[in-house]
Amino acid sequence: MKRKTPNKRKSCKNMIYMANPIYGGWVTFTAHLSLKFKYPLYKVGKRTENFTREYGYGVKYKNISEHDLSKLNNVLVTAIDKHYYQYLDSLPKNTTIVIHDPTEVKTSEKCPNPLLKYLPKWNVITIRSAVKEYLFKTYKIKSTLMKHPFYLYSIPKQVSSGSYAISISRIDFDKNTDIILRANKLIKDSKRKVLLYGAENRMYVHHKLESLNFKKYWKGRFNKTLPPSIKKNTNILGGVKYMVDLSVIKNDGGGTQYTFLEAIHQGCCLILHKKWVNQPKSIFKHGFNCLAIETPEELATILNKNMNVNTLVSNSKKILNSHIRVVW
After folding, report:
1. Pairing between strand 59-64 and 53-56?
2. Alpha helical stretches, state H, the chain
3. Is the pLDDT at 177 greater than 90, yes or no?
4. Span(s) in the chain for CATH 3.40.50.2000
5. Which of 38, 44, 70, 207 has the most CB atoms lying inside 10 A of its own CB?
6. d(C-alpha 39, C-alpha 76), whole Å
7. Residue 26, burial from CB neighbour count under 10 angstroms (0-12, 13-18, 19+)
8. Taking a C-beta distance cutoff of 8 angstroms, is the pair 145, 129 a contact?
9. How far apart are CA 296 and CA 178, in angstroms?
10. How far is CA 290 from CA 160, 273, 277, 287, 310, in A?
11. Is it the case that residue 115 has pLDDT exceeding 80?
12. pLDDT value of residue 247
């Protein structure tokens, strides 16, 4: 009698990062996926290279030519933007692609989105329920909903930033950084004001933030490391009580993002925009696993109080566990 062979794990995916941004959620997602499952990472270049380059977060990638791209099997496009649409025809028919938010499929009569022609033929993955629903309702595109994969990195216990509250999202229009800076004006204790870390959209800073004392609270871009750091042997989330992230994207939500997950992993209490909590079937619940606000006054009220957030942090850990266990 033949022995049953154990089920083999799915074959290795060849990850392709096809976008210009070098900071933000797309980049972090790609890194976590590569680190967690040891999947090789490529970028499309003029020629195929035999040596690796630094991607960030301890991940390396290789450049691959358009010709060799078409020969790859089990392709997973982790992100794509308009600068790489010229390579759409070179991707195999069985390509899997991740759509992170509705802006990626935005289209108009004047500027049609060529990506929409390919998505019905490919395997589409969405990582938030609102995006899955938007794709189907708007374009009749079916997708598989999956959780963000989270690579459980080690946390240096001896390193603490000494900060009370910080924000680690990009400084941009959809991040509502201006609400945070307006709240800082209302916070009595200077040590409790929110410090900002992250890559900045200079137009947003110029038009919305310069008059709000942005330079005083912005501590610069952090390195692409896990945990996030400004310089070697630092951990900007270390010892922080609150991580404030007021990101809001239309037709997005119903899931989470890496700023949330990294903060939970490092024991910070989340302060989110109310639109995350108000999403149907949201995993985030105000007063249970996070705190939710939408005005500078509400944020300042929380940070002016002496709150015990241990229970909120403990409850939020349950969210993280499912992202640690997910298999892509």
Report:
1. antiparallel
2. 25-37, 66-69, 115-118, 129-139, 177-184, 202-204, 214-217, 258-265, 274-277, 296-304, 310-325
3. yes
4. 165-325
5. 44
6. 10
7. buried
8. yes
9. 9
10. 22, 10, 9, 6, 11
11. yes
12. 93
Do residues 316 and 288 touch, judged by C-beta distance below 8 A? no
Cα-trace Rg, the chain: 21
On the question of pLDDT at 44 being above 50, the answer is yes
Token code pair at residue 197: 């870390």
14-145 placed in CATH 3.40.50? yes
Tokens of 133: 């629903």
Q: Using alpha carbons, select from 130, 134, 129 the residue that is nearest to residue 116.
A: 134
CATH topology for the 165-325 domain: Rossmann fold (3.40.50)
| Cβ atoms of 302 and 241 closer than 8 Å | no
Contact yes or no for 224/97 (Cβ under 8 A): no
pLDDT at 304 over 70: yes
